[in-house]
User: Which sequence fits this backbone?
């Protein structure tokens, strides 16, 4: 812990945002638009790759549109998605279409490389007036009378210096430094790893996201433009040792457990090195503190299956910008009490979704149950659209979290 004395110096900025993924760039853009002095730092240089299935529901696209980046994504070749198809271990299939789910901002989602999307979001933050420092890593937090007062960063030249801020936002992802300091991190029992490839020439791709569930893991497929398909294999974390130092070989081997997918991928070519990430299922018991708040994966991330991490990061940024904007307006210190509205708003926005993510995540551990549920949903008109609409934030979670839906799904 680094302590600093007294009230902010003239160099004290309003907001330091740590991490320029979707959560950080959106928070920086929205607070800069409100006229605050914002600095956004990331240890990476953009454009950079990110292990992700690169799927976005129509609601995610709506939030991206609010940040002004959708035309750039479409110009870069983002692919439209009509919905999501889930194949269960014994071959049962359900297809949920966004249009069937009802009131959407538009009928299609998008799939595009995170290399393109995250770069567009960083540019949006910069255009909104945030100062952006790339290749700049936060190493520790600064404190003033017990409140977070900024951070110590190591810049692109290797120099360490202090950035003092009235509010420090941890948007630094799954392994967040800020969350480790303030967030009371917790880990779930569902520990999984992902291996994500870009493959050229995958056969029989359609304009839907595909999820293929196996006996102990799953594969996601998404067309991301330029003739490439994102192929993500998710396996239990205890297989990590097998992959050490050989992610490509492990990825191709793990794919063999999904023969129908492996046949379509065979003959294609890896267009980028395979990125490995995990384990997931980590969240913060505390998302606001005096002088600090968490957003995106630094706040919580359970499992990639429902594909809404980007939505949560962007929607969380909107909720945080509303609450933090008001807390900053007073001119004094930003306290945890002043940010309590953010904590409450997150719970209202995400509680249903957190429950559904967990139900789906644990149901996959019981393949016969998963087979049965997919077969029933696939056969009954409208249920698949509702389920995919809920996971895509188009439809309220209560449409699935009710006894009738569960009864029809299982019996
Ligand atoms: C395998 C997989 C597949 C997924 N597929 C999807 C999908 O299809 N659709 C979807 O919506 N979501 C998906 N997700 C989830 C999604 O990727 C995340 O929820 C989303 O990226 C969260 O955004 P974020 O801004 O919180 O964090 P990130 O996108 O992780 O960004 C964090 C940033 O912080 C930076 N950083 C980290 N530490 C520091 C530091 N100390 N100092 C400075 N900078 C730092 C990093 O360089 C990074 O740029 C997937 C996740 C995984 C693991």
Assistant:
């Amino acid at each position: 812990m680094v302590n600093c004395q007294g009230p902010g110096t003239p160099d004290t900025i309003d907001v330091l945002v740590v991490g320029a993924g979707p959560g950080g760039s959106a928070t920086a853009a929205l607070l800069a638009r409100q006229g605050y002095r914002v600095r956004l730092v990331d240890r990476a240089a953009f454009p950079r790759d990110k292990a992700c299935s690169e799927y976005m529901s129509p609601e995610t696209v709506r939030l991206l549109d609010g940040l002004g980046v959708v035309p750039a994504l479409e110009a870069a070749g983002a692919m439209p998605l009509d919905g999501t198809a889930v194949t269960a271990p014994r071959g049962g299939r359900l297809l949920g279409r966004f249009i069937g789910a009802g009131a959407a901002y538009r009928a299609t989602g998008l799939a595009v490389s995170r290399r393109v999307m995250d770069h567009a979001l960083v540019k949006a933050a910069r255009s909104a007036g945030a100062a952006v420092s790339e290749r700049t890593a936060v190493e520790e937090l600064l404190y003033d009378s017990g409140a977070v007062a900024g951070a110590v960063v190591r810049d692109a030249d290797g120099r360490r210096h202090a950035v003092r801020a009235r509010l420090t936002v941890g948007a630094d992802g799954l392994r967040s430094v800020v969350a480790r300091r303030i967030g009371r991190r917790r880990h779930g029992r569902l520990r999984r790893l992902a291996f994500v490839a870009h493959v050229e020439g995958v056969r029989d791709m359609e304009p839907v996201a595909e999820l293929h569930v196996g006996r102990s893991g799953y594969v996601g497929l998404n067309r991301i433009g330029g003739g490439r398909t994102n192929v993500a294999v998710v396996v239990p974390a205890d297989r990590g040792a097998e992959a050490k130092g050989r992610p490509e070989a492990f990825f191709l081997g793990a794919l063999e457990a999904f023969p129908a997918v492996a046949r379509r991928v065979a003959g294609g070519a890896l267009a980028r090195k395979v990125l490995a990430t995990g384990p997931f299922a980590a969240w913060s018991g505390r998302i606001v503190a005096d002088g600090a708040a968490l957003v995106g994966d630094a706040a919580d991330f359970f499992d990639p299956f429902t594909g809404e991490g980007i939505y949560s990061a962007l929607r969380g940024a909107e909720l945080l910008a509303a609450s933090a904007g008001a807390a900053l307006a007073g001119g004094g210190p930003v306290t945890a009490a002043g940010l309590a509205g953010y904590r409450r708003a997150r719970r209202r926005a995400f509680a249903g979704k957190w429950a559904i993510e967990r139900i789906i995540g644990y149901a996959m551990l019981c393949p016969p149950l998963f087979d049965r549920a997919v077969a029933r949903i696939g056969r009954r008109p409208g249920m698949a659209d509702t389920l995919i609409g809920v996971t895509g934030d188009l439809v309220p979670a209560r449409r699935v979290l009710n006894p009738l839906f569960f009864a029809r799904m299982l019996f």
Summary: The pocket of flavin-adenine dinucleotide is lined by residues 18-24, 41-44, 50-56, 137-138, 171-173, 177, 194, 196, 232, 277, 296-298, 301, 304, 307-311, 313 (CB under 6 Å). Residues 340-363 form the longest helix (24 residues).
